[in-house]
Design goal:
Layout: E1 9-10, H1 14-27, H2 31-36, E2 41-47, E3 50-57, H3 67-80, E4 88-96, E5 119-121, E6 124-126, H4 129-138, E7 144-147, E8 151-157, E9 163-166, E10 170-174, E11 177-184, H5 194-206, E12 211-216, H6 217-222, H7 224-237
Length: 238
C-alpha cells in the first residue's frame, strides 16, 4: 500500500479498502457512517508523511457527512491500512461524484444490454450492489418480480421517433397487484433527477401501476428486509 511518490494517485485496490472499512463500521455499530460509503470511491494524496483520503460520493449524501461520521470513517480506514505504510492517514475530504445531465430519451441501464458499470449477479444485471441487496431479500418473498426490465410505453414515442422505453428498478406483483420499487441516490434517481423521476411515476400510473415508491440507497443497503416489509405492506393495501 506504500505510495511510490507524493501527489494524488488511485488508492491501491480502493474497492477492497472502502468495502472493508464499511464492513468494519457496520460490525462495530456505526451503521450511518457505513451506509455513507455505499457507492463511494476514493483516492489518496500523501505529502510530507501525511495522507489524505479523498472520497467521491453521491451528491445527495454530502450533507450527511457530519464530524462524527467523518471521524468514524477516517479511523476505520486507518485500521484497514496495513501497518507497513510509512505515512499517517491524517485527514479525509468529501467531494461529489460528477454527474452527466440525464437524457430521458435514452433507456437506463438494464438487462437488455450491458452498460459499462453494470454488475452481473445470478444471471442478471444490476446498477449497484445496493440493488443486489434488495434483490436477495426480494427473492425470499412469495412474489413475482422483474429486475431492471425494459418496458415499452405503447402509444408514445421519444422526440426522435423511437419507442419510449422505461426501466424500473424492481417491478413487483403481489396477489395480482403491481408496484414499482426504485432505489434512490447512487448513480440514478438522485435529487437532480427527481423532476423526471416524478414524470416517470406519472407515466407508469397512466398505465395502471399506481404504486411507485422511492427508497434511499443507504436504507436499501443497510436494511433491505425492512424496506421490503414496508413496500410489500403498502402494495398489499393498494
Amino acid at each position: 500500500m506504500n505510495l511510490p511518490y507524493p501527489g494524488i494517485t488511485p488508492v491501491p485496490d480502493h474497492r477492497t479498502l472502502l468495502h472493508t472499512a464499511r464492513s468494519l463500521l457496520q460490525t462495530e455499530g456505526h451503521a450511518a457512517a457505513a451506509g455513507l460509503l455505499v457507492g463511494a470511491s476514493g483516492t489518496l494524496s500523501v505529502s510530507k508523511g501525511n495522507g489524505t483520503l479523498h472520497l467521491r460520493v453521491p451528491l445527495e449524501s454530502i450533507a450527511a457527512f457530519g464530524p462524527a461520521e467523518r471521524r468514524q470513517i477516517l479511523e476505520a480506514a486507518r485500521r484497514v491500512l496495513p501497518p507497513t505504510v510509512r505515512w499517517y492517514l491524517a485527514a479525509i475530504t468529501i467531494d461529489p461524484i460528477p454527474e452527466a445531465p440525464p437524457d430521458e430519451d435514452e433507456p437506463l441501464p438494464g438487462p437488455t444490454w450491458k452498460p459499462e458499470r453494470a454488475i452481473g449477479h445470478d444471471g442478471l444485471w444490476f446498477r449497484s450492489r445496493t440493488e443486489i441487496r434488495v434483490y436477495e431479500a426480494l427473492k425470499k418473498r412469495a412474489v413475482f418480480f422483474f429486475v431492471n426490465a425494459t418496458g415499452v410505453l405503447g402509444g408514445q414515442k421519444t422526440a426522435t421517433g423511437r419507442a419510449a422505453l422505461r426501466e424500473p428498478d424492481f417491478l413487483v406483483c403481489l396477489d395480482g397487484k403491481w408496484g414499482i420499487l426504485e432505489v434512490m441516490g447512487e448513480h440514478v434517481h438522485t435529487n437532480q433527477t427527481a423532476p423526471k423521476d416524478h414524470n416517470r411515476a406519472r407515466l407508469f400510473k397512466q398505465y395502471g401501476i399506481q404504486m411507485i415508491e422511492f427508497y434511499s440507497a443507504e436504507r436499501c443497503y443497510n436494511r433491505p428486509e425492512a424496506v421490503l416489509e414496508e413496500f410489500l405492506g403498502l402494495l398489499a393495501k393498494s
